[in-house]
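Case study B.
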Amino acid sequence: MRYLNISICILLFFLTFSCNEDFLEKPPLSQTTEGLFPATANDALLATNGAYNSLRQWNLNAGGFPLLDIMTDQVTKGSSAGDGAATAVFEDFTFDAFDPAMERWYATLYQGIRKSNLVILEVPKITMDEELRTRYVAEARFLRAYFYSILVRAFGDAVLVLEINPPLDLTRTDAQIIWEDVIIPDLEFAVENLPEKSDYAAEDLGRVTRGGAKALLARLYLYLGDFPLAQQYSEEVINSGQYSLEPDFEDAFNVESEGGVESVWEVPALPFGFGDGGNQYANTWGVRGTPNRGWGFGRPAYPWIIEMQNNEDPRLDASVIFLGEVLDGIEILGDDATTDTTRVDGQIVEIECYNQKVWTPGTTAQESFGHNQRIIRYADVLLMAAEAANENGSPNVALNYLNQVRARARAGNTDILPDITATDQATLRLLIEDERNYELAFEGLRYWDLVRTDRASTILGPLGFVEGKHELFPIPQSEIDISQRRITQNPNYE
Amino acid sequence: MKKLYLTILIFLLGSYMITAQDLLTGTVTDAENGDPIPGVSIKVVNTTNGATTDLDGNYSIRVGSDAQLQFSFIGYKTQTIPVNGRSQINIQLQVDVETLSEVVVVGYGTVRKSDLTGSVASVKSEELVKVPAANPVQALQGKVSGLQVSNTSGDPGSEPVVRLRGIGTLNDNNPLYVVDGVILNGGINFLNPNDIESVEVLKDASATAIYGSRGSNGVILITTKQGEKGTVRVNFSAEQSWESIANKIGVMNGREFATYVNEFAPGTYNNLDVLPNVDYQDLIFEDLAPINNYNASVSSASEKSDYYFSLGYFNQDGILPKSDFERITAKLNNNYKVGKSFKMGLNLSLASTTKSNAPGVITTALRAFPIDEPFTTDSLGNEVFAEVRGSANPLAAIEYQNSKTTRQEAVSNLYAEFSFLDGFSFKTSFQFNGSLSKTKSFTPEFFVAPLQQNETSDISQSYSDFYQLIFENILSYNKEFNGIHRINAVAGYTTQQTRSEFLNGSAQNLLREEEEFWYINAGDGDPLLQNVSNNASETAIVSILARVNYSLMDKYLFTATYRRDGSSKFGANNRYGVFPSFALGWNLSEESFFPQTNFVENIKLRASWGIVGNEKIPANNQYSTIGTGQGAVFGENETLNPGASFASAGNPNLQWEEQVQYDFGINGEFLNNRLVIELDYYNKTTNDILVNLTPLGYTGIGAFQQIRYNVANVENKGFEFNTSWKDQIGNVNYSLNVLGSFIKNEVLDLGEGFGADSVIIGGDLGNGQRVARTVVGFPVGFFYGYEVQGVFQNSEQLNQFPSLSAQGIGDFIYRDVNNDGVLNAEDRTVIGNSIPDLTFGFGGSVGWKGISLSADFQGQTGVDVYNGKQALRFSILNYEDKFLDRWTGEGTSDTDPRATQGGVNFSPSDYFVEDASYLRLRTLTLGYNFPQNLISKIKASQVRIYVRGTNLITWTKYTGYSPDIGTGNPLDGVIDLGRYPVTKTYSVGLNVNF
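Model:
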């Protein structure tokens, strides 16, 4: 009996050893893992939408703040001195490689690239409707080109990643190669394979289009200084019949005109948190205090306001929210904690005001998350065509496009904003630059306009812009450190 | 010749016959229960003769009638009896309480204290109920050398931060808690301190390696009370306490504030005399907030079974409204003997807690404009909350906060044990512990100010459950051979699985705002305003373990342990880890050459080496996941189209952290055990620390996303001492003790081959400024920023010293650390340390007749806190009174800058680093035991009343509420952003035993 007991014990003891490896396999619940997705036609759609998701990422806009605007003469940092301190270094160009916004921006661009690469690499392997499959890939290539185009304009030579899990010893690739081998071919593929805006089903409005791809190509060719191609692509958009100017300037970016005739490409959003379709882009700019619409980061600059006033340009009122103004029945009182009017030696240098282009009506701060960020407007396409035509020696073609924009701006008031008639290339060049300054203010375009036209040191020099340095932003120091300096820094940032 | 031999033989026989004529017999029994005691050693004094009792306690021996017999057995008091010609002597041996209590609980068993080779500290039950806190760990503050207990908050029911022997890892540094053999996944908030018999803190690898992959942060073993032999014991205790804030933080009053603001914004306040002056700290804190603590227990034991049953009730209001905590606990421990060799039992702890989640109004109150009244009258003449500038109206924040967490928790251990052969036993146990936690939060619709409003009422509910199941099989062998060799060995196999799941839901626009409507179904049903989320995770561990403890002649001690763990948290390649340890002990004072004096009673030398591990990372860090919820908005009627893509990024090559630890120790008892000294030196190096690091940005995992790697190495070395003195002078008995621990912490490596200049930046103040760093060659999480050298007094100085572009006269002169004539980010340097150099505790007690007085002190030195609440300035906020000494013109202040709303002077600098060294009178207790003749009338065996003060006095230079704040994440350093204050408490109590 005793030995029986002992035997049972020993048996029990060893029985329990017969565990199998399955006991220790505990993969994540509710999520699948890399390598198993996308596998089906529905996965392909999900993965494509997942790449679009990056467009609403707060950090995609220069690390969350309207830094590209704050660095220009159109915008100052906004809010109070102690608040949004992280943006102050962009007002006076004292930012360095340790800047966290730059780090977030860089990382988020690569995140968008990675999500696009997932579609580009994996969706073609899926057995499904071929036309749709090609469209998904074209959408992803459009997005990848967009992300790379920002990356290369912001940081210059960049690490070229065309796979899901890149090796960890990569170095920077010449920007020219990225333009030629990735960005341009991706967009050409998109032009080839994407539907026009009108060819999409109503429920797909907001997906990238052939016209959007051409407009983006025009923008990038201007940046690259290839004016014939810039003119070609912008005119193709103009002649496509897909787009026109909104009759009223303020309808070019407000809620009613979302997805409207002037919208070549915008990022649709819903008035909820990011996970539910929201985009914090407008909230970041939004009115501080009463009504509470946001943080008030980025404030229209006083000199710009004065210039617009001197021109009696009606676009000023549609672009800037002044204190005391009543918008959609809501009185704008602003933030108690910030100074309403800042004077230096008795002269006004700054007033509390806000970017009206991101204004959303409604009763809650949350509404601002539903603002659709306009990335390319038809007015921009017209001005790009004007600029390219002027550079290509066709001033009259240029004037035609330019004056379409001015005509809309003057809103029937013949006393203001007369048609431009100058045909001298240099004069017209500056007039087109001015028109972009007035028409496209606070839309994240001026900084790169000034850089690509070599005008940045002239106009932004007094603010702190240093030629030979600030045309590019610093590669995040963490990237340099982690790569053990395989990844190098841009000039004059070390 | 033959004759001679014969004569000698006869002589010898004769002498034998003379001295050992009589056969003496008898039985040895236990004085308490009368059980026979087998194996009792019987020696004839001054001879080599002896005998032992048989299984029935009987013995027989031949002795002379005038001989003396010595009866001895382990665990009993030795007795010496003169024979006096008797032929039968029955002896009752008294249990030697002192020797028996000298058994120390170690992992998977117990060991005699004299055989112990590891570094283990024991804390007895009476120490654990000295502090009026729900969590027993609070009572360990200053009681165990090497154990640092601090608080992230004084919020009722919050768990303290516990660090054993420094910061060993860069992730979770919490020790492992084991309650009655059950390895817990988290803390012990469910446990009533009154139910605890003893706490053993396992410090070195010899003690912790039996817990293998979970031992490296130290192990806290808790043994709960069991029934004791004798009559039924009934205990009742009641304690009533009142707590108050120990000190207020000095902030500006209305006039000071307005004067200050006028300096940088002239003309803001024109008539300082009419401005209100509101002290928001006075308005939010309640004075003498009550704590109630009632406990009752019944216990008993018989031959065949024993039990301990208790109920406890604890309720703490908290000094902030709506921060109360209530706990009901039940404890049942019972054991049954079936036959001679079979035993089984159940240990069960149940707890139900309700916690009101405090509104975060501490910082709000500190920031509030003192010139803004909290109430105003609306157009109808009703008193309503007014807008309070700074951050929000703290009183409104309290009013609109409604959040409660309820939690039910059970920890149980069901076992059966079978003894066989000689010294073997096999124990199998099923251990289940589980919890169910619910949080309900409701915010009504309200408007106080544009920045303090809730546009629609909202409700959120979150449910989470957790369970853990352990199946454990342990074979033990305990045997002593001839009093020379003693072997204590265990071997076992255990499996463990855990599962946790949560479900959260929320809705808005409730039909009504009364509590009956605080349900999701009362929301407006708008699917866009409703949210649901649900997820779960599982883990599993499979282990083999063994330990041998061998003692030779009570002098030479040897312990070896082994554990092999396999964990689901690691990929198939690195799934198993092996954790060995070895230790030697030498009871020096047992040696024959050791001088037998009264001065030295006992000296033991110990040395140990071992490897322990850490696996405290989330369940799925090895996997790169694809997540849904990454939708995009499309359509003429904009709708969210579902999307999926990369979610978290994993590392399939993850493996354990490995900590190599050695320890040298001395235990000494001197002067008749009055003086006890324990000293330890240790060195532990953790390698392959599991740390989340930001990989190269181009990997595309996204901003703020990190991947876990095994990269860093951290060393902790230190010296610990623990001494106590106990004596009696006449009727007065008294005791003193002093303990402390010196620690040096250093990061040895931070990702070699991963990034040459790896720096882990932590300590986010909430405005993007990050003040803590972890780099090679320094302690974990030190503070990093500018060094203030003075204040620019004039333009000459401004030109003389390098400055930041935004700086002017009256601003700080930051030191140009690298002396390159330019002040920039490169000039930031080490400005503070968040790991104390020395933590200590000391105390004493005096007893005279029934009166006892005891005092415990504890503290720390060589540690800093970053005063983040003062450094954060989003807009104009009230200022701490430090700024009253500001620079107001040349020659005024060289330490405090000019008045500004915010900006450059608030950059991370040593101006905000404060010395958090302190000495605290932790408890002061005066007690009285009623005399026996009085209490016997009510049939009580003990009646004690006491008054006690907790945290009565803290000596410190720190300006915040409490210098002993801790941090959950060591990479953040210790930053004070306005914590719920640790309070001072006054208690009265009654304890009755029947």
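DSSP finds 18 helices and 13 strands in chain A. The remaining cases will be described in the next quarterly update.
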